[in-house]
């Protein structure tokens, strides 16, 4: 197993993908970047800590320690946009979510992108496929849960403040309605804001692997960071972002996420 690719195997019919929690950048790539801070600004900060309880549920966790600036393993490997006509970032991002240039000289060329795809993207998805196949061999139904977070306010990507819970099911195509309804109910019982298939409909992983007819149901959860860390309303700076994981603030959100993952397991075990 590669040292940047972490797989924790469980026996329950639930896989949690953590594609954006990494901050590692190889030195030869970091030397090309405009700023080490900018290159890590858009990480899904502390999400691996937030979901640490999932191992006790028997879930399988797949995580890359590599920064999304190197390659975004939740983008279409062909380079096609997931959100045509809307602001987004590429397979190998050249800007931050706020539109700031990541590279001093434009960014990686086609050969470099292909190298990163082979080195990082393909092994990550080989691991996901392997875990899906392993669990499908013993469970008729498996849920693939994409765990994400983002700052509550990113004006270039969306207006105003993002809801606390943002579910993506590729507009209902990546999982059964019953799973969506169960996860929505768990979120709504908290009294916190929630939207389904709003600005975030699910990335490439959700769209690619979510094939309900084959027993694989995929759903993406994009959390607003304010639920578990200080999330300043003003544009972030190296002095204000990222803020530390806030355990006391996170506890109510973690309790909701336990209900969410419980709903995923209940669905998988009874579908």
From TrEMBL:
Name it: N-formylglutamate deformylase
Cited NCBIfam families: hutG_amidohyd (TIGR02017)
Tell me the organism: Caulobacter vibrioides (strain NA1000 / CB15N)
Q: What Gene Ontology molecular function terms does this protein carry? A: N-formylglutamate deformylase activity
Tell me its EC number(s), please: 3.5.1.68
Key words, A-Z: Hydrolase
Q: Does the keyword Hydrolase apply?
A: yes
Q: Which Pfam families match?
A: FGase
């Amino acid at each position: 197993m590669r040292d940047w690719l972490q797989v924790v195997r469980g026996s329950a019919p639930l896989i949690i993908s953590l594609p954006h929690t990494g901050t590692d950048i190889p030195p030869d790539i970091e030397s090309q970047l405009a700023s080490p801070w900018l290159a890590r600004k858009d990480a899904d900060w502390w999400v691996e800590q937030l979901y640490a309880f999932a191992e006790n549920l028997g879930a399988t966790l797949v995580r890359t320690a590599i920064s999304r600036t190197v390659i975004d393993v939740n983008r279409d490997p062909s380079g096609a946009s997931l959100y045509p006509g809307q602001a987004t970032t590429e397979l190998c991002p050249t800007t931050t979510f706020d539109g700031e240039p990541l590279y001093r000289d434009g960014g990686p060329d086609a050969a470099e992108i292909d190298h990163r795809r082979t080195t990082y993207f393909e092994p990550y998805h080989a691991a996901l496929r392997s875990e899906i196949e392993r669990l499908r061999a013993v469970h008729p139904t498996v849920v693939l849960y994409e765990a994400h977070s983002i700052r509550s306010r990113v004006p270039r990507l969306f207006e105003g403040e993002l809801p606390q819970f943002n579910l993506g099911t590729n507009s209902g195509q990546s999982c059964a309605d019953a799973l969506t309804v169960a996860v929505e109910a768990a979120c709504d019982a908290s009294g916190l804001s929630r939207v389904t298939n709003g600005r975030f409909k699910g990335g490439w992983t959700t769209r690619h692997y979510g094939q309900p007819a084959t027993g694989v149901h995929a759903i993406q959860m994009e959390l607003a960071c304010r639920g578990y860390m200080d999330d300043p309303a003003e544009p972030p700076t190296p002095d204000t972002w990222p803020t530390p994981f806030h355990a006391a603030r996170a506890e109510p959100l973690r309790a909701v996420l336990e209900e969410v993952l419980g709903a995923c397991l209940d669905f998988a075990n009874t579908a």
